Amino acid sequence: MTPAPHRSHTDDLLSFIAASPSPYHVVASAAQRLEKAGFRELRGTDDWTGATGGLFVSRAGALIAWYVPEDAPAHTPFRIVGTHTDSPNLRIKPAPDTGTSGWRQIGVEIYGGVPLNTWLDRDLGISGRLALRGPDGVPRNRLVQIDEPLLRVPQLAIHLDRSVNEGVALDRQRHIAPIWALGDPREGELLRRVAAAAGEDPADVLGWDLMLHDIQPPGYLGVDREFVVASRLDNQVSVHAGVTALVDAATGTTQPGFIPVLAAFDHEEVGSGSETGAQSPLLERILSRSVSARGGSDEDWSRALAGAFCVSADMAHAVHPNYSERHDPDHRPLPNSGPTIKVNVNQRYATDSTGIALFTAAAERAGAPWQPFVSNNAMPCGTSIGPLTAARLGVTTVDVGVPGLSMHSARELCGVRDPGYLAAILTTIMVGD
């Protein structure tokens, strides 16, 4: 059976995932854990002068957190863990109330690379945030999470489509509107239902960022429960590991020799091009301001970056037993054998030999295994926030990730040991011992 330390970590991971059906909930869950560990939130309009200890800034679906040891010089280098909070899913359109043939339906838009067949015939809830009227004309936000079987995208019976098992692609525009009732569309019905769940007046709702999520809870799989199965493992495994590592670095008996940083960006699944994505100046501005707030100069900022190291942590591909020819024949990661180090010489990943050496040395100190990963040259290679961060900040970066199956599916799989291995390595990197 699974050793207790690994099971303890994954039990906590499953609780984190269950509470975090949207990027906004991921940020809220992470902030709650950080505050419990003594971190405090800073706002852009606050005076940051002299701020030390555990600190974080949240903005919509992104969070930047860091820990400044007492008496740390302004030029102290950063140890950054980069992750993302978003996952591919179905997002609700601005005018959602629709329907046909006597069914009431909800209009949705595809977000990211969604394997649409995995969303068929699943019980779906609604989550996200509402933008509401606030004092002095400034909108306020309210998170909403409806873990009820409200919606379903029904699959066409095989009797009506004999080609369904021949790989025929779904019509992305016509066949993904979930059903939720019988009858003609009722304008404003969805808004009224969601506002009621949030305890708000629908008349106060000015806008929303809402999405669908599978309400089946995360859990374990396998004869010895050696696998984790859940929605949004990509990339909440890495966010949770980063939060765990940052808290451990801040509250451990050994003060970090660096400034440990967690950067959890939004919109990675659609290119990171937003105010809260890795292409934005968000991380750069926050870290630069943290140096200035401690009396640092431009020279101190340059020195802090020159000694910095970034680990970009995102899910990776385990070798698929039914499609092993799609993988590189000499790089076939398996679950429960440690996180992978991702390499791509065309810079789809930012890993180089220096990054490999730093990560593997930390893995050795943490007593955790690791595995190399290279995509099959005949297949297009995915990417991550690693190259974006490396290019923007000019810091040594390594791309890593827990190997899993069913990536981007409505329900993904990874090994029960690997999330804990990743957290242990990240803690070692952040502390720097």
Describe the structure.
With 433 residues, the protein is an alpha/beta fold. The protein has two domains: 4-87 and 231-431, Aminopeptidase, CATH 3.40.630; 89-214, Aminopeptidase i, Domain 2 (Roll), CATH 2.30.250.10. It is 26% helix and 28% strand. The chain contains nine helices and 20 strands. The chain has helices spanning 4-18, 23-36, 189-197, 233-251, 282-293, 298-306, 353-366, 386-393, 418-431, and strands at residues 40-41, 53-59, 62-68, 78-84, 89-100, 103-111, 124-132, 140-151, 179-182, 205-214, 219-221, 227-230, 259-265, 309-313, 316-317, 340-343, 371-374, 396-401, 403-405, 412-415. It has a nine-stranded mixed sheet with strand order 1-2-3-13-4-14-18-16-17, with helices on both faces. Strands 11-12-20-19-15 form a five-stranded mixed sheet. It has a three-stranded antiparallel sheet with strand order 5-6-9, with no helix packed on it. Strand 16, helix 7 and strand 17 (371-374) form a beta-alpha-beta unit. Helix 4 crosses helix 9 and helix 7 packs across helix 9 (418-431). The longest helix has 19 residues, at 233-251.
The count of domains is: 2
* Percentage of residues in helical conformation: 25-40%
Total helical elements: 9
Low-confidence stretches: none
Largest sheet: 9 strands, mixed
| The CATH superfamily title of the largest domain | Zn peptidases
Mean pLDDT over all positions? 94
- The first-level CATH class name of the largest domain: Alpha Beta
What portion of the residues fall into strands of 2 or more residues? 25-35%
Question: How would the blueprint of this fold be written?
Answer:
Blueprint: H1 4-18, H2 23-36, E1 40-41, E2 53-59, E3 62-68, E4 78-84, E5 89-100, E6 103-111, E7 124-132, E8 140-151, E9 179-182, H3 189-197, E10 205-214, E11 219-221, E12 227-230, H4 233-251, E13 259-265, H5 282-293, H6 298-306, E14 309-313, E15 316-317, E16 340-343, H7 353-366, E17 371-374, H8 386-393, E18 396-401, E19 403-405, E20 412-415, H9 418-431
